[in-house]
Amino acid sequence: PAATHQSWQATTQNPFPALIVNGPIAKQIRLSSGYGVMGPDPLHPAGGPIGRAIRLILMNLGGTVPGIGTMAIYGPMRFTNAVLAEDEDGSPWEPLSVERGFAKGSNVVTMTSVASSVNVNLTSTDSRDAAGAQREFLMRMVQMMLGRQTPIRECPGLILLPREHARALANLGYSKLDVKTFLWERSKLPWEMAVATGRAGNVKSEGFEGQATPITKTPKELLIVVAGGDQSGHSWWMQPGMMSTAAVSREIKLPAKANWDALLKQAEADLGPAPAR
Q1: DSSP string across 150-177
Q2: 178 CB burial (10 A radius; 0-12, 13-18, 19+)
Q3: Burial level of 183, CB count in 10 A (0-12/13-18/19+)?
Q4: Which among 57, 81, 207, 252 could bridge 51 via Cys, Cβ 3.0 to 4.6 Å?
Q5: Strand partners, 83
Q6: Cα(182)–Cα(68) distance, integer angstroms
Q7: Which residues does 82 contact at the CB level (< 8 Å), separation at least 6?
Q8: pTM confidence score
C-alpha cells in the first residue's frame, strides 16, 4: 500500500516498478548484478520471471489492462519491469538495504516506480586528471537529471553506477552521501526553465517560486545503487514519473529452511552450479 499503486498504475504516463534486491538471496536465486544487469542473462535468469510475475499480479489482481485499468500511453519495460541485485561485493559503500535501516546481510527488496531510463556515457573526457574526469562524469548524470518532467518528489528515480565508477569516486574521497549531494545541488531545475516549460505552477506549489527546484527534499532521498559490469564506461539514470511515490523497502521472508534448501538443490540440478557472481 505504501507504494500507492492506484496512482502510478492508472496514469497516462508510463511508470513501471524497479526492484533492487540485497542480501545472500540475490546470488541464491541467480539475480544479476553485473554485466547486462537488466537482462536477459541465461546465467542469471531470475529477473525476467520475477518481473513477469509482478506484471501478471498487477494485471490480474490490479486490473491494469491497457486502455481500461492503466492508461499509460507507451508502457515501456512492462513485460518484465526492472528487477536486479546490487553489486555488494563490488561496491565501496554500504548497501542500499543498510542505508535504508536493515542489518547488513539481510535479504531486502526495495521498490520504486520509474517512467523511463537513459544511458550516461562515461568514456571520454576533456580532463587530464582523475578528479576532474569524475567530476565531469557526475555532471553528465546531472544533465540527465535536469531533463526530468516532475516537480519535487519523495520518489527520487534510480541512479545505477558500475563498480569501477563507484570505486573511482570512493578513491577520490567521495562517500555515497557526497555523490548524492553533488548531484542534488547541481540538478536543481532553474526557475527560468520551469517558466519556459510551463511548470512554474508546480514549482510555486512546492514553495520554490523564483528559485531553483531540487529533485527531492534532501540529498539523502536519492537512490544510488552499484550494479553493472566491471568496467566504468557507462552509468544509468531511471527517471521518476509524475505519479511516482517514495521508495519502499521490505525484508524478504523465505520459506521454511528445508523447503528453501530443496528449492536451491533443484535449481542446481536444473541450471547447473550457481555462478560465483
Answers
A1: --S-S---EEEE-HHHHHHHHHTT--HH
A2: middle
A3: buried
A4: 81
A5: 19
A6: 42
A7: 16, 17, 18, 19, 38, 47, 51, 114, 117, 238
A8: 0.94
